[in-house]
């Protein structure tokens, strides 16, 4: 969604998926400025029920949280 733009540490971006024609469950992929890639594909994120997704590092692992649920890389 960001293309070549960079989201700096501690910053956020609002992305409106509107009426997504691809369905409700979406995967998440994050590529860092260092080229590290983290992907969450198992259950996917149910976008109509998700207000915020946070991505952060915990104990050396990338973690993505949505509405209190946690998906670890």
Structure write-up:
The chain is globular. β4 and β5 form a beta hairpin. The strands form two sheets. It has a three-stranded antiparallel sheet, with no helix packed on it. It has a two-stranded antiparallel ribbon with strand order 1-2. It has no helices and five strands. It is mainly β. The chain has a domain at 25-72.
| Spans where pLDDT lies below 50 across 5 or more residues | none
Structural class: mainly beta
Widest sheet: strand ordering: 3-4-5
Helix content: under 10%
Number of strands: 5
Taking all Cα atoms into account, the compactness measure Rg is: 12 Å
Tertiary shape:
globular
List the topology elements.
Blueprint: E1 25-31, E2 37-46, E3 53-58, E4 61-66, E5 69-72
Antiparallel strand pairs: 1-2, 3-4, 4-5
Main attributes of the structure:
globular; 3-stranded antiparallel sheet; mainly beta; two-stranded antiparallel ribbon; 73 residues
In short:
The chain is mostly beta strands. The chain is built from no helices and five strands. The protein has a domain at 25-72.
């Amino acid at each position: 969604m960001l293309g070549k733009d960079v989201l700096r540490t501690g910053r956020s971006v609002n992305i409106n998926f509107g009426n997504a024609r691809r369905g409700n469950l979406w995967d998440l992929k994050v590529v860092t400025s260092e080229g590290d890639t983290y992907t969450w594909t198992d259950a996917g994120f149910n976008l109509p029920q998700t207000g915020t997704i946070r991505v952060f590092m915990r104990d050396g692992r990338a973690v993505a949280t949505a509405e209190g649920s946690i998906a670890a890389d």
